[in-house]
């Protein structure tokens, strides 16, 4: 009897220090719960006395369609046909002991079902002395202290098994902190040991018992650690914590908002997660203007989900704009990733953060630079000043960067069509000086960047191309057919044709593999480019003529009504030009004009003898969008430069008309603009007379 009395008094002290005064919960219409006003201490004592007298057994009901299963070969929990866990209904206030089960029953047990599968339930082994009925209060521990003193997950469980203390979240958080320090292989091995450790079941049981009484942030930390440690989401433990978090969501403060957002982002979709996420949206919508810390705001924005209602995204955007004056450099750098994670393109916010990033670019880590550029790509956001600031910084500090880091940046710049001449020249020079850097993993990306951006340095391009060709030749015995095609296509765009790689590409087995596997449509397109380059460019290779390739579909005609009207006004009628002309090798031009060799007089298409005239100049008018140029320049990109080169080889004089410039002009100005483009400088006075 003395032992029981001592146990009761210790429980009473434990409850008074760990639980708010007699907190009871009431159901709200949305399914959430919030604390009522505290009852008197006398009522709390009566409740505990009734519990001690009646030896209350907690009634907890579970709703399942199948048993828990422990899959052999993996020491992790899984379930079979698990349905939603019902809300815990507890008639009396819960304390650390009030949910303990009778020693003759086990809350969780391990056995074998009729089909031979192992059943797993969290159990509490009966012992002479319950871990919460000891006469002395265990020494309090913190997650930080545990993570500093322990080197493995099992070390934490060993400490827990000797003297468990409230709350259990300290042990779970410490285990996740330790796991983060481990390599992937070590983490996998430690998790297996953790699941097989006998104290892990006891820790899970204690977490379930404490779920209703521990502080809300501790409850969130518990679920976060459990999910990160790899406990399957469809287990009773995880679903129970989800339901308690849902019920008590009105207790969520600013700190808890960021934790809850992080948890939901890490979890797979299910009914309880969906309901909790909807509750989070409602809560954030109500509390967004009360958030004080920028870090909390950005965490909520990052993890709230891409499917968040647009109205809530805009509300968060307005809150971030309101806090701009309080943004640190790190906050501005992080904002790009936050908006990309939320899938919300706020140009105003991105512009302001870009200014701060540019002003504080020196010392910015490589990881952050990559994150900023990747986020800009995901958001389809282009800021020339930002890209130039990053490229200038890397070019200025070029010697401190690894070549693979610079290559990664160049690949991201290529996605935007951004060509930084200084940085690309430095990288080319470094490759010439250190060709040992080249490998199969770097050759193809380097060729892709330089061919796509149509970049050459006159003093080094020949030596650079020879080194790249030599490195590619050395990899021919183990290169894949697609990588070989990509490399040769890049060389052809650059107008360079290495002998050995080209010969290997046109072997029958390589061609057959490209036409029957992988991305066949893409392979056919690139083979046509190589075939056209070998036929039209100045090269001795003619093997492409012997290769039969599938016919590519003709590009659809593009309407250019405004330019048609301007040309009709300028040239005197539609008989002096032709629209939507299809040429050999699947090339298409918007307009063809026939002129004399001095480009001073336009010739009519109705004149039959014109086609045989030797003094005729064919003019190709191409109406082009911004995408054919490098970002914010008139430097043509790779494939468009090849088209211009091949049109010249077919005898055309190429005239480029920028659509976005012509659309801004009135008809009279558009006619004058086309006149200066079509006629030669010497012929402009006579063209003016003809126009009059």
From TrEMBL:
Cell compartment(s), UniProt: Mitochondrion
SMART domains: RAP
Keyword Membrane among record annotations: no
Molecular-function GO term, any one: RNA binding
GO BP of this protein: mitochondrial RNA processing; regulation of mitochondrial mRNA stability
Domain RAP: 619-676
Annotated Gene Ontology cellular component terms: mitochondrial matrix; ribonucleoprotein granule
Signal peptide segment: none
Protein name: FAST kinase domains 2
Keyword Mitochondrion: yes
Keyword annotations from UniProtKB, A to Z: Mitochondrion
């Amino acid at each position: 009897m003395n032992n029981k009395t001592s146990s009761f008094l210790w429980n009473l002290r434990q409850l008074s220090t760990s639980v708010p005064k007699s907190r009871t919960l009431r159901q709200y219409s949305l399914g959430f719960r919030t604390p009522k006003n505290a009852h008197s201490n006398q009522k709390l004592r009566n409740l505990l006395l009734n519990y001690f007298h009646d030896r209350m057994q907690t009634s907890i009901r579970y709703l399942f369609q199948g048993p828990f299963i422990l899959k052999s070969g993996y020491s992790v929990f899984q379930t079979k046909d698990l349905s939603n866990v019902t809300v815990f209904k507890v008639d009396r206030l819960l304390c650390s002991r009030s949910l303990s089960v009778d020693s003759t029953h086990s809350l969780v047990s391990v056995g074998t079902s009729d089909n031979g599968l192992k059943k797993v339930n969290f159990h509490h082994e009966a012992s002479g002395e319950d871990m919460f009925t000891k006469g002395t209060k265990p020494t309090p521990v913190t997650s930080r202290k545990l993570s500093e003193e322990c080197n493995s997950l099992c070390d934490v469980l060993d400490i827990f098994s000797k003297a468990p203390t409230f709350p259990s979240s300290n042990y779970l958080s410490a285990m996740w902190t330790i796991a983060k320090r481990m390599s992937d292989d070590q983490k996998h091995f430690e998790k297996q040991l953790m699941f097989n450790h006998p104290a892990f079941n006891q820790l899970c049981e204690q977490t379930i018992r404490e779920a209703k009484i521990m502080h809300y942030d501790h409850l969130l930390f518990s679920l976060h650690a459990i999910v990160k440690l790899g406990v399957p989401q469809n287990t009773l433990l995880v679903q129970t914590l989800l339901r308690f978090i849902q019920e008590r969501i009105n207790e969520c403060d600013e700190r808890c908002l960021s934790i809850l957002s992080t948890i939901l982002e890490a979890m797979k979709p299910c009914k309880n997660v969906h309901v909790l996420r909807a509750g989070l949206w409602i809560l954030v919508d109500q509390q967004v203007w009360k958030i004080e810390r920028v870090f909390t705001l950005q965490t909520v924005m990052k993890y709230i989900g891409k499917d968040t209602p647009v109205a809530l995204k805009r509300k968060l955007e307005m809150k971030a704009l309101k806090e701009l004056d309080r943004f640190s450099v790190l906050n501005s750098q992080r904002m790009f990733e936050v908006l990309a994670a939320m899938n919300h393109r706020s140009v105003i916010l991105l512009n302001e953060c870009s200014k701060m990033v540019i002003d504080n670019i020196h010392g910015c880590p490589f990881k952050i630079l990559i994150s900023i550029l990747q986020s800009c790509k995901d958001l389809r956001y282009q800021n020339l000043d930002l890209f130039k600031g990053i490229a200038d910084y890397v070019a200025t500090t070029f010697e401190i960067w690894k070549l693979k880091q610079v290559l990664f940046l160049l690949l991201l710049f290529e996605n935007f069509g951004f060509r930084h001449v200084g940085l690309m020249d430095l990288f080319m020079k470094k490759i010439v000086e250190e060709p040992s850097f080249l490998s199969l993993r770097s050759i193809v990306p380097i060729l892709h960047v330089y061919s796509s951006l149509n970049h050459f340095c006159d003093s080094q391009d020949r030596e650079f191309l020879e080194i790249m060709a030599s490195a590619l030749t050395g990899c021919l015995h183990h290169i894949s057919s697609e990588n070989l095609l990509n490399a040769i296509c890049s060389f052809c765009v650059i107008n360079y044709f290495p002998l050995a790689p080209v010969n290997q590409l046109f072997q029958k087995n390589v061609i057959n593999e490209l036409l029957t596997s992988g991305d066949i449509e893409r392979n056919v397109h690139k083979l046509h480019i190589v075939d056209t380059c070998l036929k039209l460019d100045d090269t001795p290779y003619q093997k492409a003529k012997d290769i039969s390739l599938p016919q590519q579909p003709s590009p659809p005609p593009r309407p250019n009504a405004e330019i048609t009207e301007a040309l009709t006004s300028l040239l005197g009628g539609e008989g002096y030009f032709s629209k939507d002309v299809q040429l050999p090798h699947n090339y298409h031009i918007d307009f063809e004009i026939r002129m004399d060799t001095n480009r001073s007089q336009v010739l009519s298409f109705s004149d039959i003898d014109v086609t045989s005239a030797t003094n005729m100049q064919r003019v190709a008018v191409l109406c082009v969008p911004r995408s054919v140029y490098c970002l914010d320049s008139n430097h043509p990109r790779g494939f468009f430069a090849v088209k211009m080169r091949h049109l010249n080889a077919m005898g055309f004089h190429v005239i480029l008309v920028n659509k976005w410039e012509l659309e801004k002009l009135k008809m009279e100005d558009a006619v004058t603009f086309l006149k200066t483009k079509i006629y030669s400088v010497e012929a402009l006075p006579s063209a003016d007379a003809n126009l009059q």
